[in-house]
Amino acid sequence: MTLQVQDDSQLNYTVRLMEQLVVATFVVDADCRVVIWNRACERLTGLKASEVIGTREQWRAFYTEPRPCLADLIALGRTGEITAHYDEYDRSGSDAVLSDCYRVRSWIDMPRLGARIYLTADAGPIYDESGKLVAVVETLRDMSVQKEAEAELERLATRDGLTSVANRRSFDETLHAEWRRATREARTLSLLMIDVDFFKPYNDAYGHQGGDECLRQVAGAMSNVVKRSSDAVARYGGEEFAILLPATDPPGACIVAERIRAAVEALRLPHSGSTVADHVTVSIGVASVVVTTEGVPTQLVGAADAALYRAKHEGRNRVVLADSETGPAAQAA
After folding, report:
1. Catalytic residue among 19, 239, 265, 294
2. Total-model pTM
């Protein structure tokens, strides 16, 4: 942006206007000294204009140690460092007036506020008629409420509303992501398919509300067993659950499966409609594969599902490992 020559009255009016803007705004000169720090900026950052005007200490509003702000990086011609300082950034399009303007977004621990906020900053240079940089203007917005709302919507979109574990959509996305990762690293990926035994008779005996509560408690028991952040517990559909275990070999996957079977049994939820126990139990199919570029995720799901089918037809309330070259054909509870 080019700055036209102004007389003193015009300049004073411009400064007063920027000071009264409702958008938090500060301006640094070509030497990165603060020349304007408006009232909205004081409110947003907790740093008074009197503390920064004429200094290069604008960083005190955002950091505990000296660090360049977005305006500083533009003034110093160091925009290549933007990605090292902020979570996200955009550069304006090809418009000649806006091509040097940047927008960054990042969570910032504001030292004066004693709070963490999601800050969006826009900054762009101002040149005189000869093309010389004279200042950089930066505007700031607290987008924490919007960011938290987006995060909550995203969380809700990936969670099962009844059990609070991941939903089928989330599971499918995670499976494909972990499959790609396992392909790159040539590592094992294991999957547990879990079915609540005789769930229809349970619903008939205890009603749908009782069935919902059963599924919630079963999901909670599984989540208490699966502790690694990389593991994914999901409701696959109806009374069926799936657990993805990256970098887990067949024996390890069977150990986790047996712990889950035992944890559900330990709930001792009465089940008058079961023919294998007087309480709720689960059947679990386990499949493991060393992922290669030749395989596809549906093969793992199919193998775990086939193992679950065997577990149900071999008596239920048990763990069965899919036939493989790396482990036993079955492991009963």
Report:
1. 239
2. 0.59
